[in-house]
Amino acid sequence: MIAATALVRALGCAGLLLLLASCSTTTMESAVEPPPMSGSTNDPAAGFKNMQPGSEEDFILNVGRRTFFTAGSASLDSVAKTTLDGQIAWLNKYPQWLVKLQGFADDSGGDSAQVALSQKRADAVMAYLAAGGVSTSRMWAKGYGKERLVRACTETSCKVQNRRVVTNLRNEREQP
Which domain holds residue 159? Predict the structure, then answer.
């Protein structure tokens, strides 16, 4: 019985070794070369192929322009502050950019309450950026309430996407 078990194990190991030996390996050249665009999730972002440091594309991809909030709140949590710290560093490095802060809400309450909350969120982001050294003369904030939802939904996990401030770069100040 023991001999039969040992034989089965030995044959199993031999089979595994043969299977591994038949596998091909990837050469270093093929690993370094980027794959062709296939329309899959991991393809390079369209339009960002020639991204330059200090460009809007650089800001969007390497810093991030969205700051999220909990329901009914305009308070910045640690995740929001981390995003904004990155924005502060980038904006201080590239002072030619003006900043439009667009606040949004998807919380309970009427339209006027949503506009007020989204304005408070945009103002909170502006205050944090200003405290980090970004000149207030370069920034303006506007609350949009429930306008421009990322997704219309009822689930909390979905609605959180709409509770945000988007930091948009501008070359000139927009007129109201």
Answer: 56-169
